[in-house]
Amino acid sequence: MTEDGDSKPQKVDSFAALRYKDFRSYIGMRFCFTFAYQMQAVVIGFYIYQITKSVFALGLVGLCEAIPAIGIALYGGYIADKSEKRKMLLIIFAMVILTSLVMFTVTLDSMHGIIHKDWIVPIIFAMIFCNGIARAFYGPATFTVYAHSIPKEVYPNGSTWSSSSWQVASIVGPAAGGLIYGYAGKIVPGLSGITATFSVIIFFLLISLVLVFFLRKYPPVFVPKESIWKSLSEGIHFVFHNKMMIGAMSLDLFSVFFGGAVALLPVFANEILKVGAEGLGIMRATASLGAVLTMLVMTRFSPMGKPWRNLLIAVTGFGLSIICFGLSRSFYLSLFFIFTEGAFDSISVIIRGTIMQLLTPDHMRGRVSAVNQMFIGSSNEIGAFESGTAARLLGTVPAVIFGGSMTMLIVGITYLKTKKLIPLSLNQIQPSAEVEVKPVV
Which helix (H) or strand (E) holds 293? Predict the structure, then answer.
């Protein structure tokens, strides 16, 4: 307001978060890691399906990662709260690089005479399990780094850019993975697609490791004075007694659990739409394309005016898109519905991310992020297992339609139980304590 009482519209700075040096290092690191991780996910799924011809095996890929990611998530959050974050990230990335090197080795054509073919899939599953362990620590550590890299008033803009960097990597990663996997042998005779793809994956993981050194050190803000169990229960108690936080987590968990059709894309690419590895890469990238374009729009037009109302609308659109995708038999129409699925999901990601950052006190960020990871961070993997199991019992297309329908039902139930949250605006959400950071160009 001006002195005479007239209000003037404030200029929106779409690049507010990017004006902080540490935040730029953070999203660069996250981009490279996500690019490699998403590429690895798509080619591993396609490679295992080619070997086993089993939709259930695709579900097991997600389950192998979800079990450790969920099982030790709370401990990961406890360690993140009381540890220096940069050192923690260096250890995590080193572990992921090691697992990728093992998978690169066992999938080499020259190793087929040394390693029995029946051992290849179990070894890959074991490495995926190790990646799940790394993820249990990665989420809480990066959640804290993000929170301290920008001031709290920039959180909505930072959440948009952070999510956008993830989505851009999710566009390029799966697309590059599918294209390299499909065309490497045609471009370089004798070079297998899986070998070429893992070479690129390891290269980008090494870049993400280097970028960690550009982060400043983040000393712990939590020194435990009680037992680990009491510290963990404090984080759980905080989350489960915050209606908006637990509502957002639950909505995501169940919607993605039943709507995890992405795990079945290799089946659609191979048997229903018949577009091969190249088409699989395009489909994986299209969902992220819809997400990142929407997020770029959200840097200008924030969905946080009525966050809870907009979250329910976004998840409704997500569920409808999944149902329509399952019914489609046209590749281009399927791409359209995958695009809208990604667009709606991106809106919910921005809203949930901002709510989580605003509601979490600094000394509990690791533990709260761990609880969040148990709900959201592993919901894709659990959803992949559900989709693979449902596809085995019902068939691929009925499983996708069932998942989308259940997502719609979850939204309806959530709406009935959270009507009081719908009118709330962003400034009615109680923020966490301010973090003192200064912009560095």
Answer: helix 276-298
Distance between CA atoms of 133 and 192, rounded to whole angstroms? 29
Q: What single string gives the DSSP state of each residue in 193-215?
A: HHHHHHHHHHHHHHHHHHHHTTS
| Spatial CB neighbours of 337, under 8 Å, sequence gap ≥ 6 | 321, 322, 324, 325, 328
CB atoms inside a 10 Å sphere around CB 61: 23
Q: Report yes or no: 66 and 381 within 8 Å, Cβ to Cβ.
A: yes
What letter would DSSP give residue 111?
G
One DSSP character per residue, 214-251 reads TSPP---S----S-HHHHHHHHHHHHHT-HHHHHHHHH
* pLDDT tens-digit map of 14-25: 778 888 888 888
The Cα-based distances of 128 to 47, 120, 333 in angstroms read 14, 12, 33
pLDDT tens, 409-438?
888 888 888 777 777 666 655 544 333 434
Is residue 306 helix, strand or coil?
coil
Q: Which residues contact 41 (CB under 8 A, 6 or more apart)?
A: 174
Handedness of CA 68, 170, 140, 388 (dihedral sign): negative
Classify the phi-psi angles of 6: left when phi > 0, otherwise alpha if psi is within -120 to 50, otherwise beta: beta
CB-based contacts of 417: which residues, under 8 Å, 6+ apart?
Answer: 247
Both structure tokens of 414: 């959530």
Supply the pTM of this predicted model: 0.65
Residue 36 tokens read as 């490699």
Q: How far is CA 347 from CA 48, 291, 343, 388, in A?
A: 32, 8, 7, 26
Task: Give residues with Cβ within 8 angstroms of 281, minimum separation 6.
Answer: 42, 174, 175, 176, 177, 178, 179, 181, 182
Cβ neighbours of residue 219 closer than 8 Å, sequence gap 6 or more: 84
